[in-house]
Write a structure and sequence with these properties.
Elements (H helix, E strand, L loop, with lengths): L4 E6 L7 E6 H76 L7 H4 L16 H42 L10 E4 L2 E4 L6 E4 L2 E4 L5 E3 L4 E9 L3 E9 L2 E11 L6 E2 L4 E5 L9 E8 L2 E3 L14
Antiparallel strand pairs: 1-2, 3-6, 4-5, 6-13, 7-12, 8-9, 8-11, 9-10, 10-12, 10-13, 13-14
Length: about 300
């Protein structure tokens, strides 16, 4: 098969026209060379730009990673402080519950466990990212513990408020300064000598000695009683009621609210009595009980 040629005619501005023959294979080779050269150039430029971009991205990634690691360290320090404070708070919670006889919160409950699909799977693949995920989980746990502790303290507060109410309305101090002249129970009647039930205690004291309300409450009555003379009866709530008899004077009236330690009258000799003294009774759900059990040493007073 005859070889094919390209004819290249060169027409100079001056001089003779020149006709050159170039084979197809040579032209193809030149074209392929040019295409290859251009392709290599484009590839080299692309590779250079890509490498430069990768280096820039790597540099920024490294800088961000360092910044992230520093934040993780700071977060760990702050998290440890929170955990220590939370542990101290939980210890105080347990102590308060122990002192006041409240039920303790189970240690497993305090772990505030959670569940669910893929809870512990970290979406981060770098070491710093994994550390961050661990810190996030720890922080989430501390926050759950804080919510639990807030609920626990709310319950403790409500319980103590209720208990304080009960304590404030429970007889607990001596109603007057004096000495015990007659106790609670079956005692000899000073007039007849017969053994009769004595529903309270008698405190001998000088006439005019102040008589105090032994707990917070409301005066049910303040008036004359055939046997106890001038008598004050106070309803303290929670089933408690106190009676103060043989008074010389009464400084309260029915319906008046009184507080523990408030003067309500004075020791006298009114009614069925052989001398100045205070007859004091404590009733619990309408049943007389020994008042001596409701007189605490030192006379505890709540404001």
């Amino acid at each position: 098969m005859p070889r094919k040629f390209f004819s290249i005619i060169v027409v100079p501005h001056q001089g003779k026209m020149c006709n050159k023959k170039v084979s197809y294979s040579l032209v193809y080779s030149l074209v392929l060379f040019v295409v290859f050269f251009i392709g290599m150039g484009v590839f080299s430029i692309f590779s250079y730009l890509s490498n430069k971009l990768d280096r820039n991205n790597l540099y920024h990634f490294q800088m961000e990673n360092k910044a992230l690691e520093k934040k993780i360290v700071d977060l760990d320090l702050l998290l440890n402080q929170f955990k220590n404070q939370m542990n101290n708070l939980m210890e105080k919670d347990q102590t308060i519950r122990l002192v006041f006889g409240l039920p303790e919160v189970d240690a497993q409950v305090r772990e505030v466990g959670v569940g669910g699909p893929n809870f512990n799977i970290s979406p981060y693949h770098t070491e710093a990212g994994k550390k961050l995920k661990i810190a996030e989980n720890e922080l989430d746990k501390v926050l759950r513990q804080a919510r639990l502790e807030r609920e626990s303290l709310d319950r403790i507060y409500s319980e103590l408020v209720e208990r304080k109410q009960i304590l404030d309305h429970t007889p607990s101090i001596s109603p007057a300064d004096g000495y015990l002249s007659r106790g609670f129970g079956v005692r000899s009647d000073p007039f007849t000598g017969s053994d009769l039930p004595h529903l309270g205690i008698d405190l001998a004291a000088d006439r005019g000695t102040p008589v105090f309300a032994t707990a917070n409450g409301k005066v049910l009555s303040a008036g004359w009683h055939s046997a106890l003379g001038n008598l004050i009866v106070i309803d303290h709530g929670f089933g408690y009621e106190t009676h103060y008899g043989h008074l010389a004077t009464m400084r309260v009236r029915a319906g008046q609210v009184v507080k523990r330690g408030e003067i309500i009258g004075s020791v006298g000799n009114t009614g069925y009595s052989t001398g100045p003294h205070l007859h004091y009774e404590v009733h619990l759900f309408d049943k007389p009980v020994n008042p001596s059990k409701y007189i605490l040493s030192g006379g505890i007073i709540f404001d």
